[in-house]
Amino acid sequence: MRSQSTDDYLKALYKLETEEKPVSTTALARLMKVTAASATGMIQRLARDKLVAYRRYYGVRLSPEGKRIALRVIRNHRIIELFLAEELGVSWDKVHQEAEAWEHVVSTEVVEKMADRLGNPKRGQRGQLIPERDGAMPEQRDHVLADAAIGALLRVTEVEDDDAGVLQHLVSIGLGPDSRLEITERRQYDNLLVIRVGGKTEILGPSLAQRIRVARLPVVRRSKEKVV
Amino acid sequence: MRSQSTDDYLKALYKLETEEKPVSTTALARLMKVTAASATGMIQRLARDKLVAYRRYYGVRLSPEGKRIALRVIRNHRIIELFLAEELGVSWDKVHQEAEAWEHVVSTEVVEKMADRLGNPKRGQRGQLIPERDGAMPEQRDHVLADAAIGALLRVTEVEDDDAGVLQHLVSIGLGPDSRLEITERRQYDNLLVIRVGGKTEILGPSLAQRIRVARLPVVRRSKEKVV
DNA sequence: CAGCAAACATAGGTATGACTAAACAGCAGG
DNA sequence: CCTGCTGTTTAGTCATACCTATGTTTGCTG
Questions:
Q1: How many structural domains compose chain B?
Q2: Is residue B224 part of a domain?
Q3: A55 — contact with chain B (CB < 8 Å)?
């Protein structure tokens, strides 16, 4: 039987997975805030249960079944977050922690009732893509702010951080999902990003710029301007 | 740190407790569907954590702190049941099981938001009294149907059973919270109760009559009668 | 290519919470 | 008073999931 712990590990593995290389024990341990030994132990149980493919001293990768579970848990989490915020008026800084506990416990059936109530949203509280009902993950078409070109006009699609302090800071400078911004300058030596947002100039450190995802704003000047 | 298991045991102890004698290990084990040995083990942990008073070979009783936790869990459970049914449209036979999982996980803060949304109800889905926000348990003024006098006009206040089959049967004969009924006859030898409910005559066995709580109907002129 | 440090795995310990099997307490009846 | 039954507790085992301490690999670097 699956436990909350295994669900959490699978979720963490999904976040860490990339096309290229398998996830390292240390990376998993760091994200889960446990020792490497504990991570090894859990990886072995997951491998035994066929939820991951594992080779010692090499790395670990989700199996199709493991991925399915991870996406389900992530969908639950994001729907619950939205539900807590929009339907129950839970303050944004408490929503994440509460959803963390609920996600393992709320039945799929009830999550889908919440999703219906919310109008089957495609993105979560901070703009994260939500896995679909059937387990498919929509393709991510945006890119990280840190990689964007100078002078580009951008729209924030997602904030990839759930730390309350970080979010609070971003709110204070007017940066959140759907904010518009322009990159003014990239400082060579310390990699700081100077941006214009809401009529003001702000500076972002590289770690922050790495956690904000953006999409290019369509250039609409010349033809019929349509404001939505 | 409290766990789901300890919460469940405390809840069970609250249900079993009476003024007179302490709860027996066997009774607790039966309700929790574990062996007596397991119950003993848990009782010892609860005693160690000062959540119960315990004497070997004698019995166990909730401490004030244990009682406080039990009442909190029960309040959570009942509010969540109502919320699931009324706000999310979860069908009545699935509500109990879902709430069983949620009750340990939903923060007090969010439960109270649900309670506000529901208008701070005093009774649960099946008419059970809900412990108050501050931990007080309202006094039970009703009594069990099995003890009621013949000829009495009664209103159902509570159905003390969460078995889906039992509930389904009661629904089918038109008995639920707020139903009105009259006791026609009590059969001496097999203790069956003959009642009039919704214009029909029904017969209840003693085990069922023991699980239904009723209040005497105030004798008033029938002007604003609520139909359920 | 050898050697070393970082990354990873194993061994052994703890707590929870379940189980079975076996010992033991307490009360009733002979 | 002792015997025996019922109820209860103890003892020992197992799985999960964490820890610390200690080995083992791997890959980088001189």
A1: 3
A2: no
A3: no
